[in-house]
Amino acid sequence: MHINIKYFYKILCILLVFSFIFPSFLFAYDDYYIWSDDSVITSVNSNEVRKIENSSLNLESGGAVLIEQNSGKVLYEHNMHEKLRPASVTKVMTILLIMEALDSGRITLNTPIPCSQNASSMGGSQIWLDVKENLTVHEMLKAICVVSANDCTVAMAEYLAGSEQAFVDQMNVKAKQLGMNNTSFKNCHGIDEDGHFTSSYDIALMSRELLVKHPKITEYTTIWMDSLRDGKSQLVNTNKLIRNYRGATGLKTGSTSVALYNLSASATRDDLSLIAVVMKAPSTKVRFEEAQRLLDYGFNNYSYKEFGKSGDVIKNIIVNKGISSNVNAILSSSSGALVKKGQEKNLVQNVQLEENIIAPVSKGQKLGEIIYSLNDEIVGHCDIIASDNVNKISLWNMTTYLYEIWYKLIR
Question: Can you give the pLDDT at residue 122?
Answer without folding.
Answer: 92
